[in-house]
Amino acid sequence: MNISFEKSSLPTGGALALLIEQDLELGKAGKAINEAMGGGLKAAIAAAGFEGKEGKTLVVVAPPELDVTHLVLVGIGKGKKAGETAFINAGGEAVKALESAGISGLTIELDGADSDKNAARMAFGAKLRSYYFDKYKTREKDSEKPARPDLTIMTKDPKDAGKEFSDLEGVASGVFMTRDLVSEPANILYPETLAARAAELADLGIKITMLGQAEMEKLGFGALLGVAQGSAREPKLVIMEWKGSEKGENERPVAFIGKGVTFDTGGISIKPAAGMEDMKWDMGGSGVVIGLMKALAARKAKVNAVGVVGLVENMPSSTAQRPGDIVTSYSGQTIEVLNTDAEGRLVLADALWYTEEQFSPRLMVDLATLTGAIIVSLGMENAGLFSNDDKLSKQLTDAGLEVEEPVWRMPMGEVYNKQLASPAADMANISPGRWGGSITAACFLERFVQEGTPWAHLDIAGVTWSDKDKSVKRKGATGFGVRLLDRFVADNCES
Ligand code: BES
Ligand code: MN
Ligand code: ZN
Asked: Which of 24, 274, 359, 406 is spaced 20 to 30 Å from 245 by Cα?
């Protein structure tokens, strides 16, 4: 999608989108158009009962006296007083409304609500909405795809809007990378190929280091390697370092750690067949970490950040880990693997410990499609937040609300933690019984975080993939987490 900013003038050709404030008169451009239509625009608004509510749109096929093909009225609620996400969502809604109209150009007129920030936000929302994963649709004609028109945003200060947009475009590039990775099937995306995709970030100035099977064996990554041993695919640990802090490259980094199970069959504790295809997106946590690193580098964030992703495939085979096996993690703690389907925590255990050993980070946030139980708790609307630190929890919660990627804090504590007791090893990888499974999973992870390090775990199993269309994301991979953590960094971690 090509996006440009221009000084306000009535467009020729393509479609025209107008922002409409709730229950208010038309803006300047709207009035001019209504006049040119002999009052037809107002009549259409009245006939459709369109009120300018946030999230609502009305498409009117333009009459011949106008130089455009379609008019799209986009509700913006409180107008120029509307919040940041109202403009982002309005940009998405404008594109969404015209997806089946086959247009090649769209002009958005902010009509009274223009500021460089709002113009950039509209562009950002339109861009986010334009994502469509059609890599493997070889016979779909362009006319069958959702239209992704060239976009022109009319605003007072096109130059300033362009500047505002350039950071947002960087964030969008990160979101798109995450969506690309999460959408790929597991025959194409496995540890080695996912690692290779992460390595492309070197072009943006990110330092890439990789550990393979042999290096991880030497270090003693018994937990991660136990998961990987059933697969013919070699596991990888990819480390991505971005050094943007103005305090210098020695400033302690913030660390993001991702679960990258490129396919989760469950292993010997195999999952039922129905829905197992969803487990191609069990690398979602790693996808977010990779996309986030891309976003931070693309907008040259003033922060030192490290991303670590543990990449494995969880397969049943004659070499697979068995229920009851005892493995020694990189931390030295032993784990009795009572269920091979609770594999994400085993991967993260070694990745978390390695991150601390290697980088002594200021704080750590891990992301994982860790439990089905979090979907039972929070549905598809909130990610689960688990943390040992109130300040970090608040910062993440606030950032989530700002970008509409909400997280909800869940409890932890000794009553849950002790359910991980094992008769044979330092701990078991599951708790007995079905209840509170997301919480005991988080307690397991906390055992691999060193005393004093602020840490948060985001269980994104319910929010990584969506069956519903929303303003700025169509169904499929959402990229949830990239905008959230990018905002968290911008608000709290930059120098
Ligand atoms: N990857 C799954 C969790 C998951 C389930 C993500 C559904 C997205 C949708 C994870 O590895 C898993 O299998 N967890 C088990 C844990 C159980 C064995 C304690 C679960 O949630 O059933
Ligand atoms: Mn599993
Ligand atoms: Zn899994």
From this structure: 406
CATH (residue range 3-156): 3.40.220.10
458-470: average pLDDT? 97
Q: What is the mean pLDDT of residues 83-104?
A: 95
**What is the DSSP-derived secondary structure letter of residue 404?**
T
Angle (deg, nearest 10), helices 191-199 and 158-183: 160
pLDDT tens, 247-287? 999 999 999 999 999 999 999 999 999 999 999 999 999 99
224 Cβ inside 6 Å of ligand 1: no
**Region label for 15, one of left (φ > 0), alpha (ψ between -120 and 50) or beta (otherwise):** beta
Query: Which entry of 145, 243, 271, 362 is annotated as an active-site residue?
Result: 271
Specify whether 345 is catalytic: yes
Specify the pTM: 0.98
CATH value of 176-492 in 3.30.559.30, 3.40.630.10, 3.40.50.300, 3.40.50.620:
3.40.630.10
Residue 112 has pLDDT above 90, yes or no: no
Question: What token pair was written down for 428?
Answer: 């078991």
- Selecting among 129, 179, 294, 345, the annotated active-site residue is 345
Which ligand 1 atom sits nearest the alpha carbon of residue 282? Answer: 1
Amino acid identity for residue 445 in this structure = L
Where along the chain do its domains lie? 3-156, 176-492
